[in-house]
Amino acid sequence: SVIPLAFASKTIVTGNLRSWRHLMIMRTTKETHRQFRQLTIPLLKELQDKIPLLFQDIQPEQTQRENLRLPR
């Protein structure tokens, strides 16, 4: 919501698998900002398809409290 609609931009984000897992656990929850969830939930689904062993237990739209109970 900060960048004007007619402005083209690219964002590249890197991280290790532990960081990505933590991001998905914390930012696919009900408490997360709606626009951030619109980005992270499709990304989580793609990660679940590509690396199910690490991401299959994360369920979007849970609470952070429920997600923090997941093994790390």
Q: Secondary-structure map with pairings?
A:
Elements: H1 17-27, H2 34-50, H3 52-55, H4 64-67
Overview of the structural elements:
This protein has 4 helices and no strands. The protein has 72 residues and is mainly α. The protein has helices spanning 17-27, 34-50, 52-55, 64-67. The chain is 50% helix and 0% strand. The radius of gyration is 13 Å and the shape is globular. It starts with 16 loop residues before the first helix and ends in a 5-residue tail after the last helix. 14% of the residues are buried. The longest helix has 17 residues, at 34-50. The mean pLDDT is 88.
Descriptive keywords:
single chain, 72 residues, mainly alpha
- What is the straight-line distance between the termini? 32 Å
Strand content: under 5%
Question: Which geometry do the CA atoms define?
Answer: globular
Number of β-strand runs: 0
Q: Uncertain regions: pLDDT < 50 for 5+ in a row?
A: none
Summarize the structure.
The N and C termini lie far apart (32 Å). With 72 residues, the chain is mostly helical.
